[in-house]
Amino acid sequence: MASKLECNEARGEVALRVANVDLVIAAEIGKLAAVSTALSCKSMQDLLLRLGGAEAAAVIAGIRFLTVRGDAEKAIRELKLQHFNDCAVAFDKALSHHFEESEGNGEAAGEAA
């Protein structure tokens, strides 16, 4: 189930629900750097593989550092293995924002900045 919080998809925000905790995540560069540092990733490929692979430490770091709205720490406390796939899908969707053409989204993205 997706989060009930509003998200600005043009900015790359993605809704995520962990147990009964609604979150909005975004793969902003500074947030990705924090995840990478927490996981001691050596490359962007390593980071992408770990977030997409639903590795426990990566899921926790992803929730903790990529959350822009919602209670990340509560979501981590409620986290169960059954939520890992939804997290991996949300991380992938947020990361894909960096690989999409952003032409025409400048105004929408700028509104959230």
- Mean pLDDT across the residues is 87
Shape, principal axes of CA atoms? globular
Q: Please give the alpha-carbon distance between the first and last residues.
A: 27 Å
Oligomer: single chain
Low-confidence segments:
106-113
Structural class by SSE content = alpha+beta
Percent of sequence in beta strands: 5-15%
Instruction: Summarize the biggest pleated sheet.
Output: 3 strands, antiparallel
Order of helices and strands: EEHHHEHHH
Could you please describe the fold and organization of this structure?
The protein is of the alpha+beta class. The protein has one domain (9-97). Helix content is 51%, strand content 13%. It is built from six helices and three strands; from the N terminus they run E-E-H-H-H-E-H-H-H. It has helices at residues 29-39, 44-52, 56-66, 72-78, 84-96, 106-112, and strands spanning 13-18, 21-26, 67-69. A three-stranded antiparallel sheet has the order 1-2-3. A hairpin with a 2-residue loop joins strand 1 (13-18) and strand 2. Helix 1 (29-39) packs antiparallel against helix 3 (56-66) and helix 3 packs antiparallel against helix 4 (72-78). The longest helix is centred in the C-terminal third of the chain and has 13 residues, at 84-96. The radius of gyration is 13 Å and the shape is globular. The N and C termini lie far apart (27 Å). Mean pLDDT is 87; it is low at 106-113.
